[in-house]
Amino acid sequence: MSALKRVQQWATFARIWHIYDVAWQNPFHSAELLRKYLMGIHKPIYHPMNDCGDHVIVINSADIALPGDEWKKRVYFHHTGYPGGASWTLAWELHKKDPTLVLKKAVYNSMDGNLQRRSTMERLHIFPNADVPTSLLANVSNQIRQLRPKPKRLDTYPDEEVKQFPKIIDLPKDYILR
């Protein structure tokens, strides 16, 4: 076997570390993307009974964006196992308690039917901001592209660009902004 083929074979079977920035992304669409890397669906050797998935580091999970009024209407169920231990938590409350849980539950639910779901979830490393331990960052060799471009905030545009933007209406001098 040539050295090139040996390296190609090693790369196929190795667990690669990926990094993904989830800021301003829909967690449910991102979960479908992350599932492919965690389960190894993107590899040519994938089989449902084969554990060939990769590690994924997710940063900025505190900045996820749910569509519409999902923050107020989406509910997460939890049961303690004791009688009367059922509880339902709104998405914004769950996100306030732990900014990683909404994305973690979305990825977990996207792998429905996977027999190795619990061990696969151990390869998902979620951080609420960009502070990742250097020991984990040393392993990263690939970056997963965001599904949607991150929108630019108005306060980040330079003043010259704001002044050059075409106006729809000129407000009178005595107009009061509230």
Automatic annotation (TrEMBL):
Keyword tags: Ribonucleoprotein, Ribosomal protein
GO-annotated biological processes: negative regulation of translation; translation
GO terms, molecular function: mRNA binding; structural constituent of ribosome
GO cellular component labels: mitochondrial large ribosomal subunit
SUPFAM superfamilies on file: Ribosomal protein L13
CDD domains per the UniProt record, alphabetical: Ribosomal_L13 (cd00392)
Similarity comment: Belongs to the universal ribosomal protein uL13 family.
Protein name (record): 39S ribosomal protein L13, mitochondrial
